Amino acid sequence: GLSFHWHGLSMRGANEMDGAVGITNDPIPVNGSFIYDFRVEDGQSGTFWYHSHNHLQRAEGLYGGLIVHKPKPWWESRDEAAEHLVMLGDWYHRTAGEALKFFSHPGAFGNEAVPDSILVNGHGAYNCSDAVAARP
């Protein structure tokens, strides 16, 4: 299953939409559906982000950005072309499960696994000449 947790948006009056699996709601089952229905409060405009809050899905890339504009009268134009959303993410050159093993190992002393490189809007670059040759 999966869920979406919204960073920076108030879920006042809609706690069940917060997406914290096991705390505010159950995960959406495989082949299931769920409609997130919450109101963005007055004054909550800006750039926010969301991510899955179930298992290791965020580390595997299930996250994104959300732009909330201030309400404008319909007669005022908005220059949408001037906006660019940039999402930065960690890129582990191993599975999220392997990174979690490091993080949860007592010898890690609570330190997070350091990402091998960075993703910009889901894209990364890596010099594969440094990769260790392996066969399945």
TrEMBL record:
Pfam family, one: Cu-oxidase
Keyword field: Copper
Domain Plastocyanin-like: 2-72, 83-131
Single GO MF annotation: copper ion binding
InterPro entries per record: Cu-oxidase-like_N (IPR011707), Cu-oxidase_2nd (IPR001117), Cu-oxidase_fam (IPR045087), Cupredoxin (IPR008972)
Family matches, as SUPFAM superfamilies: Cupredoxins (SSF49503)
Family to which the UniProt record says this protein belongs: Belongs to the multicopper oxidase family.
Record-linked PANTHER family: LACCASE (PTHR11709:SF511), MULTI-COPPER OXIDASE (PTHR11709)
Name recorded for this polypeptide: Laccase IV
